[in-house]
Amino acid sequence: MTIKRTFDFAHNALQKYPREDMFVTKYHGEWQKTSTQEYIDLGNKISRGLLKLGIKPGDKIALITTATRTEWAVMDLGISQIGAVSVPVYPTISPEDYDFIFNNAEVKYCFVSDRDLLEKVMSIKQNVPSLQGIFTFDSIEGAANWNEILDMGKDEATQGEVEDLAKSINSEDLATIIYTSGTTGKPKGVMLTHQNIVSNVLASDPRIPRIKGLDYKDIKILSFLPICHIFERMLFYLYQYNGYSINFAESIEKMGDNIKEIKPHLMSVVPRLIEKVYDKIYDKGTSAGGLKSKIFLWALGVNKAKQNIGKPSGLKEIIADKLVFSKWREGLGGNIITLVSGSAALSSRLNKMFQNAGIPILEGYGLTETSPVISVNSFGRIKVGTVGHVLENLDVKIQEDGEITVKGPSVFKGYFKSEEMTREAFTEDGYFKTGDIGHIDEEGFLHITDRKKEMFKTSGGKYIAPQAIENQAKASKFIEQIMVVGDGEKMPCALVQPDFNFIHNWAERKGISIGKTPDEIVNSPELKARIGKEIDYLNTKLGSWEQIKKFELTPDTWSIDGGELSPTLKLKRKAVKEKYLKLYNKMYGHEV
User: Is the domain covering 456-588 a CATH 3.30.300.30 domain?
Assistant: First the structure.
């Protein structure tokens, strides 16, 4: 069948790839499977139930879940095939942002996963005149449950109406409004049509590796990134398009257990997860002691010296793989074909290390506004340090100032209720301005240098690209997060959030007393001196104008809840600077 709308993926899967475990979610300690047929039947019930509630094409329905689960998939199908518009919302944003999004989108109904989210939405309900009801996936006393919608849709007499509405939906019709988390200001409602998402899925499909001897029924996906983000959502449709089983992880905290239970073949990741996984591996390898630690460190040296990405060749590489790197693969379930990385830049050092350990990472690039993929590496065409080749159906133009601009079917319709912002987002000849600086090399690989808006100029007139410096700095075991500052100042400086877990172990190994509380630790002269060595080493790789001259340690762990990071784990630079303004002023000698 021809796929033109997002819900076509589900019906195509039933026709071509029916399976008993299309979706798998863990409830009360047990993995429960939903077949392709059950998925379609439940989606139709939701559609019929929503029609009985009075939902019409174009009405907005919010979906919020702490962890992705089968109910979200069913709701997405039920909403989309009657022409309603889904508004997926990050569970971690503030009630104030909920208030803004619900009112801006004029949300009619909201479906939430659990009690905490119910309470969050209830706290702003009285401020949202359009909101007629809230339903929960969990069974919560006194709350309306999504089963009520399923019960309302049991009668199949109105199925003809559902099918008529589905036929009337065009590929150019609005499918979803995704509010970008934003690192400054109010969230922006990105309008994505069915065509935007479908075209991106179909263009990305050739980049997914196919392994000989593996049938679609053999392949399992572990999905843990928030499905309200277009990166995971596009992959959600891509996996359906290929008939793969999608297993929803319980939480990031339980990822290790879930990986062992599911033994996935494909997973999408963000760079921060790769960094965390490596830190765990390194800590375990170096703390084993004796011969084991020596073998581990020797193997890392072999990995680093490996010239060509690929299978081990030569006796040293074969031994290192057998003794050390085969265990890395076992730790990821033993079946991983590849990890797909997006959302932020991945350290080239880590990327190369995992590739050489037999765990390929396909790094890609895109934005919510581009549905999202603009470019991605693929098997046989991997170049570490790049985000791969541009998708075949997109036209990328590098502007004179280095900004990456793009035109094509997956570029969004515009910002909801904001014509002026939409106009500003495009060049005069219709290219979307990504806000990222980059270039395409002679082999056609796209390189991302920095965010245009994040680049700043020192008082000496030199431009600084902070993200590139920060990515190199985070290779240090001592540095969990770092933000390079210095806009309009005479020199670059940095605010550093230490990796407290690693530092505790380091201090214990060295027999150094650095204090117990975060405030005591960040004021430890020994720690500051040691991190100073890390900064000195970083500076050897930087131009004289971009070297970090001073730094201060922050006592807090930067997080989404703390307001330092966005829901996609990007630095909220303005918020971080405001929070640590005293430290900022101290570095620059400003009087307060």
Answer: yes
